[in-house]
Amino acid sequence: MLYSVPMVIPKSVIRAGLDLLGQAAAPMAGRAVVAKWNALMRAGELERARSQIKLEFLRNRDLARLIYEKHRGDMSDEVAAIFEEMVQQEA
Question: Average per-residue pLDDT in the chain?
Fold first, then answer.
């Protein structure tokens, strides 16, 4: 007779796996966010883009800075200026 033994996976292993998955997905997510902000700027919605960038800073400053550093080349000049303004306000 076969018995199944439940596999117990420690929470630390699950967290480490999720962290790795998040790190792999971050570059694609960053590009998508930058593309959305650029689209808002092209549509002439400066205040909406500014509020979304500010919201991203309020949620997670480190992630927002990482997006800026990694995807500066993908940003329109207007979006980059808003980012730089947010960094200066923070300092």
Answer: 77
Integer Cα distance of 27 and 42 in angstroms: 22
The neighbour count for residue 64, using CB atoms within 10 Å, is 22
Cβ atoms 89, 64 nearer than 8 A: no
> How many domains is the chain partitioned into structurally?
1
Which residue has tokens 């796996």?
Answer: 17
Q: Tens digit of pLDDT for each residue in 8-50?
A: 767 776 676 666 655 655 566 678 888 888 888 888 888 888 8
Range(s) of the domain holding residue 53: 29-90
